[in-house]
Amino acid sequence: MASLAGTNFTIYLDYIQVQMNRYLSPTIFIFGVIGNTLNCIVLGQPTLRSNPCALLFLVSSFVDLISILVGLPTRILAGWNLDPTAAITWICRFRAFVVFTTRTIAAWLIMFATVDRWLLSSVDIHRRQLSSIKNIRTQILVTFVLSIAVYAHMLYCYEANLNDQPLQCYGKSEQCRFATDMIYALVTIVIPLIGMMTFGLMTIVNVRRAQRRAHPDLRATSDVNHHSRRVNNQLLRMLFVQVLFLIVLCVPQAIQKFYSTVRPFGAGSTDEDAVKTLLYNIELLLAFIASGMPFYIYTLFGETIFRKEFIHVIEKIRKKRMGMVRTIDRTHCRT
């Protein structure tokens, strides 16, 4: 009876996992692709991309879009037993490498955004001068190169057709799994999050210090300075909310990675492995939610800066479409 109950429990957990892949994954995919695409369009406007922090948001949204486009379709297909990464090794390796690399890039770019806000909020003019497009582009390039180098081993380590791991596309040896888990937990999650929290708190200290030092009569009153402060304050708010969501969504992944090194898959009972597999798949979806959420955060907390630019983009598209319709109508009338 105990064995039968355990079997039923495992089947039930497998059923939950399949339903998540079938119905939750497509929802995350649709909202993630739409959100990141709109982010790239809005943040790519000249009024925003000239801001160092906005440029980091732009590139982060672009790599998040790649992560979702490459990573989520196979999760959706897995719900129907059609996942090609489960059987074809080169697809397995390519998907794992792209997803892990883009997640790392996105996390570090958001961390650099908190560094940029800290530099800009400093009373030291030399620190404020370090917040520049040139420095941001250098950081982006270095982040891309190092992230690719850190996960290059996955092009060798990952293997398809594995039946004793949470996924059939997984690390083929204990050494590979340990290296990937530790790199992902530390480099992709823990270190960037610590950086985000540290520089975020330092930014808050700088802002409060500047408010105490500034006398109302001596504050800048020009429209240009007022607009610049408003843009920076709203970018800071958008950044802090995004960091908060990243902490909530990504910390469980880091805990799982550390736990898996202490008690790997296969070390316990069948029921325990079934629970681990379900939790692993939930954490995969949480990571994709983290990649798909920025647009909705920016829209809700960007107030005038992001929402105004978004509406402006929509209006430009509408006018361009109306112009095309008029041109077609005039051409039709002439013929």
UniProtKB/TrEMBL annotation:
Domain G-protein coupled receptors family 1 profile: 35-298
GO cellular component terms given for this protein: membrane
GO molecular function: G protein-coupled receptor activity
Top-level taxon of origin: Eukaryota
The keyword Transmembrane belongs to this UniProt entry's keyword annotation: yes
Pfam families per the UniProt record, alphabetical: 7tm_1
Protein keywords: Membrane, Transmembrane, Transmembrane helix
Record-annotated membrane-spanning stretches: 23-43, 55-74, 94-115, 136-156, 182-205, 235-255, 278-301
Subcellular localization(s) per the UniProt record: Membrane
Name of the molecule in the record: G-protein coupled receptors family 1 profile domain-containing protein
InterPro entries: GPCR-Ligand_Int, GPCR_Rhodpsn, GPCR_Rhodpsn_7TM
Transferase listed as a keyword: no
UniProt xrefs under PANTHER family: FMRFAMIDE RECEPTOR-RELATED, G-PROTEIN COUPLED RECEPTORS FAMILY 1 PROFILE DOMAIN-CONTAINING PROTEIN
